[in-house]
Amino acid sequence: xxxxxxxxxxxxxxxxxxxxxxxxxxxxxxxxxxxxxxxxxxxxxxxxxxxxxxxxxxxxxxxxxxxxxxxxxxxxxxxxxxxxxxxxxxxxxxxxxxxxxxxxxxxxxxxxxxxxxxxxxxxxxxxxxxxxxxxxxxxxxxxxxxxxxxxxxxxxxxxxxxxxxxxxxxxxxxxxxxxxxxxxxxxxxxxxxxxxxxxxxxxxxxxxxxxx
Length: 212
Hints:
Blueprint: H1 17-21, H2 24-40, E1 47-51, H3 58-66, E2 71-76, H4 79-88, E3 96-100, E4 113-119, H5 128-138, E5 139-150, H6 152-155, H7 158-163, H8 173-182, E6 185-195, E7 200-207
Parallel strand pairs: 1-2, 1-4, 2-3, 4-5
Antiparallel strand pairs: 5-7, 6-7
Helix pairs in contact: 2-3
InterPro entries: Diverse_substrate_MTase (IPR051052), Methyltransf_11 (IPR013216), SAM-dependent_MTases_sf (IPR029063)
GO molecular function: S-adenosylmethionine-dependent methyltransferase activity
Keywords: Methyltransferase, Transferase
């Protein structure tokens, strides 16, 4: 694996991540803009695993209402987020389940899900490459990883780093797509979208069959 030079991140003075991540505005952006955009890129799957529930259950709701999911397992490392998301999506009934789990050690067997979904989770994960590999592990051949992410160009902006703590060594679009490919997740030309000058990327990657 080719490693790029590590970036030196600007300092963080106040960590206000939660004020945005769990805000009503953030939820509405995901529900009304980012979710439909991923659907247009082809995101689809009956058995879904969501990485990073947040406290409003955004991904679980989008999976059911936009991507045709009938069985969603949504995971987060924060127990408080899992509890709040479970309450926020109670109307979805037994189609959604929630569990405290790490994205680098997902609690499902190999090749067992149709769709892995992430709304801005990977750029929060210290070892994001391990999380990509784990997503590939749990996807069946032909399954999809659908994601919306902020790239290093956004995350490492001085104004954002000053008020929002993130791990170092974040990715740009090219690095993310290259890591997906290394793990057997291929992004087609029409299943990648960047916005805000490459600061935000949306993609749907397909799990290739072993040996292809």
